[in-house]
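To whoever is on call:

I kicked off a structure prediction for a single chain this morning and the downstream step that reads the tokens threw a length-mismatch warning. I double-checked the sequence; it's 803 residues and nothing unusual in it as far as I can see. Pasting both halves so you can look.
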Amino acid sequence: MAKIKHNNFLDTVNEVFTDAKEEGVLHLYAEGETFNGRTIGVKNRSLFHFGTTGYLGLEQDVRLKEAAIDAIRKYGTQFPLSKSYISNPLYRRLEEKVTEMYGHPIIITKNSTLGHIGVIPSAVQDQDAIILDHQVHWSVQSAAKILKNRSVPIDMVRHNDLNMLEDKIKRYSDTRKKIWYMADGIYSMYGDFAPISDLMSLSQKYSQLNFYFDDVHGMSWIGKNGTGYVLSELGELSENVLLFGTLSKTFGASGAVLVCSNNKMYNRIKTFGGPLTFSAQLEPASVAAATASADIHLSPEIYTLQQELRERVAYFNELLHQTDLPLIDQNISPVFYIGTGMPKTGYNFVNRLMKEGFYVNLGIFPAVPVKNTGVRITISRHNQKEEIKGLVEAMEYHFPKALEDTHTNSQRVFQAFKLEQKQKEDFSKSKINADLKVQLEDSILKIDKQLWNNLLGKKGVFDWEGLKFLEESFTGNTLKEHNWEFRYLIIFDKEQQPILATFMTVGLWKDDMLAAVGASQTIEEERKTDPYYLTSKVLSLGSLFTEGEHLYINNDHLQKQQALNLLVQTLEKIEYSLKAKMIVLRDFAEEQDIHTYFQGQGFVRVQMPDSCTIDLNQNEDLETYISRLSARNRKHLRKEVLKTEDLLEIEILANPTSEQLEKIEELYTNVHHNNLGLNTFSFPSKLFGNMAAHPNWEFITISPKADPEKMIGVMLCYKNIHKTYIPAFVGMDYRYLEKYHIYRQLLFQTIKRAIGLKYNHIALGLTAPFEKRKLGATVHTTYAYIQTADNYTLELMGILESS
């Protein structure tokens, strides 16, 4: 394998969003000539609105509306000047009101995203460090990444993991002036809280610790003067805290607000804060509406509004508690999340609720892991008890129906979110055809040899003999990364005809295996003292040793869909029982049917390096093969390969000596250490000894004729039972790479050897397609499908790769 392609993230998000759009649950347009907050027009229907972030309903308050209208009449639709020069006449009063709310200096920003971009680079100094909660809002993460350009270290911890946070603080405490922890007050998907009290206790222990809280979802509905969740927990804003609130969402207007008790920092940010200086200011209507809202927040009325919302939230919690719906986090916030697990179950559930007359939000990747898709429900003062009760009844009825429609069950959903079910019975048992028979084994020795070879391994190192070899090589080793669990799955129909077959391994992978080289270089520095830093148990189709089509499926079989469903459920059971953190399905061609299926099952697709193969004609000799190359490639062959061939000693070793085997391992290790584009653990030493003793393995070696005992290159090749020749791994002495064109020479000798053996096919693997194409290889696009327990690793790699 080789370096993964790193435009994958945007491609994946685009695919997931496109899928959700086509299912009619994303990128919708509200309809109607008026809007009251209680209902919303969607697809020619009036639906009760459970998707707003205006929790107090102030966006419909007549005082805010009248203030905005009056401001437009007096001052126009906008005030087109930078605030650095002059603010529109309404700004002063708004700033005074919001300052009175918080009791500390404030800065009004155009919106939260621009505010973070303006504030974070101004507040964080070059001598500081940043630690992000991995679920902190994208806008905070994006602004923090700007500091990479100034060599400010940016790190990340799992969501609300204070032990991990403390370890990171210790790491930076001797080298950094301030350590900034950045988190949300209320997290927008699950509605859970930052542990403010515990965090402040941690800051008493570590004086360098400072906080940057984004509390936009905690605003207005809680706290003195509606100043939000974080301040309600803090009581008083300390100098080591920067607090971000919003004038939109629950506040009912537009804009955002930074609150800062440190006057020196406040003045620095206000004087010149990037977008705070150069961006357009809030429109007069927005400023006036925000001022009217601030008046409400400064009056006793805010507490009446908060109480009205609190009653609705408590009522919804009470009703949910009486059901078996998978509520992900129960608390007092107005944000609720009902898990569905797979995206297609989420699509089905949302559409069912809309048909019943209720609008809710879909929670989907990248806001949540793909397998943690669900329905986000928000409660506002607009919602009345009768429709709150109606929503719960609709969810209780339609949730098992959605599970049934998408061939899943509640147990899988609860397991995906690590929740305990209140009842052990499933809401819905998958309607998998009872005629299907599953054979699941832990050794290839328990699988019929002829059957396996007819189904799988025709073009890879995973025919029956190859897998027996792998089991012997990757069990009983000293290091844990050298020991794999093997599983073999065959699904038969009632006539005992196989529909699907595959093999799987569970082993320790480096989390940065598919990351950019720069990220791996950073992580490998940590691994010098902690060799298992950022590593996880992974369940994979195939293995890290094999490449090719690891999944056999009879596409013409009428029960193909049921077999695929059984495959996914088997994967989940193995993942759970062996405590794996990720499932990887590898080496797929671009097939729309399989893509649609796996994406709906909670997998994200990433493009892998291109695969290269050569098909050989029957009884083809080397001269004929070369004649099939283009004139340009024949010229390349003569100039860079044939010209140096006469300077080299080429040897095919079936039974290398111990000295030769030691050199082979050394050359392979050179290449392995040099390939951070695909960062994996090394292989156990006994593997090479097993290769030397196995009749299907051989080594193509090259040495200079001037020094025939000095091996400078080797190709480790497997002879498949179906006459496929597989150059599985390469080893090189990089000192001679250019002089003898070692890699190109080894490729050519591989082709030459396969022709000499009268083989039909060469599986050249996923590395160096440019070089292989010049020697006649066909290049194929390949994909992997990945499913993770959370997005922590993905987010962390994004931070590290931005450096």
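Update from on-call: the warning came from a stale cache, not from the record. Cleared it. Sanity check on the structure: Residues 612-781 form a domain with the Aminopeptidase fold (CATH 3.40.630.30).
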